[in-house]
Design goal:
Length: about 190
């Protein structure tokens, strides 16, 4: 019995990177769904993955074939675990995730496909924006002392993001025009 047959006949939620790679080389009936945002997807994904951001899953679930297994992928496994729950709640029977996400995939030495002109990763954009806002607050405080509040606000936001693992700035940056897939544009890939 092939690995694809076993994944379709018995439920196994988490797939190790080597298991997923083996399944991908054996069959084309597997639906590989990347639940990250476009900027993250463009900067590196498993070949054959389709982008279906976590926030759009419920609205776009009809795009998935209920008769085929679905494997959700994200950066670390946190969002893909949420995606598995959402898709299963919508009545899909065979929904799985890549255990450890793309970080585990890369650590196993497996390749990622990337767009040639991918925007910076959201995490990098967030660090840049936070640093820029802190510097702006400090600089403007030399002229207007109350501007130091901007630096305090950003610092507090960074601590909050670390403690809660929720980043409002990242969510805002994901909605910026440079992080959106442009309709009608063909993308060139690099291995």
């Amino acid at each position: 019995m092939s690995n694809l047959t076993s994944i379709t006949t018995e439920y196994k939620q988490n797939l190790a990177p080597a298991e997923l790679r083996s399944l991908l080389t054996q069959a084309d009936r597997l639906q590989l769904v990347d639940v990250r945002e476009h900027a993250e997807f463009a900067s590196g994904r498993i070949r054959g993955a389709r982008l279906l951001p976590l926030g759009e899953l419920q609205r776009r679930a009809a795009e998935l074939d209920r008769s085929q297994p679905v494997v959700c992928v994200c950066r670390s496994g946190k969002r893909s675990a949420q995606a598995v729950e959402k898709i299963a709640a919508l009545g899909f029977d065979r929904v799985h995730q890549l255990d450890g996400g793309l970080m585990a995939w890369e650590q196993a030495g497996f390749p990622l496909e990337k767009d040639m002109r991918a925007p910076w990763a959201l995490e990098r954009q967030g660090r840049f924006a936070a640093g820029l806002l802190v510097l702006a607050g400090l600089s403007f405080s030399l002229v207007w002392p109350a501007a130091i509040g901007l630096s305090w606000f950003v610092g507090t936001g960074l601590v909050f993001a670390a403690v809660t693992d929720w980043c409002g700035m990242g969510l805002l940056l994901a909605r910026m025009p440079w992080n959106k897939l442009k309709r009608g544009c063909s993308t060139r890939h690099r291995p």
